[in-house]
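WARN retry 2 of 3 for item q-0093 after timeout on previous attempt; input resubmitted unchanged.
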Amino acid sequence: MCSGRVDLEFILRAFSNGVDGVFIGGCRLDECNYITHGNYDALSNVLLCKKILEHIGLNPERLNIEFMSSGDGILLVDMINNYCEKVTEIGPLGTSEGMEGKELSLKLEAVTQLIPYLKLVEREKLRVPVKSEEAYHQFFKSEAVDRLFNELILDKLAISQILLLLREKPLSTGEMAMALGLNPSDVARHINSSSRHGLVRYDAQRKCYALS
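OK item q-0093 returned
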C-alpha cells in the first residue's frame, strides 16, 4: 500500500485503540513509482499530526515515519527495533504524559471529529512549495505555520472538546475550563461562538450550558 494512503484517521484510530506508538514506512522520497508522490503526503500528515499530538499533551515522538527502498530489509528491521525501544522508553500512552484514560479518549475523539476540516486546512493552507524532506520539516517548524495552526485549528479543537464534554452532561464555564485546562475567558469565547451557531444553549435554571 502506498504510504500516501495512510490517512490521519488511521493514525488517530490507532492511538484511540491504545497503541503506544505508530511507525509508518514509505518508499524513498523522490523515488515514488507514481506521479502522485504519496510519500510526501504521508510526511505532511505525520508532521501535522505531531503538532496536534503535542498540543493535546501527547509526546509527538510516539509517531514516526521513515523512508526506504524495497531492498532495505535489514534497515527496516533496525528502524523498527530502534523505534520500539524509543516507545518503550516513552512509556504507556497517556499515563506517561499524566493523562487519565477518560481525558485521553476525549482529546483523541475531539481531534478525530475534526479530520475533514484538518484535511481542508492541510490542502488549502499547508502545502509545501518545494518537495524535499528538509523543506517539509522546515515548513512545519516555521513561525508562519505555527500562526496558521493557532488561528485555524486550536479554536476548532477547543470547541470540539467542549461539545464532547457537554454531550455527557450540562456544565458551567468554570467546570469546562477546569476539565480542559483552559482559561475561563477562552471557554466563554468558545461558548459564545458555539451559541451563535446554535450548538449550545444556556440553562438559566441550572446556571450552566448544555447542547442545543
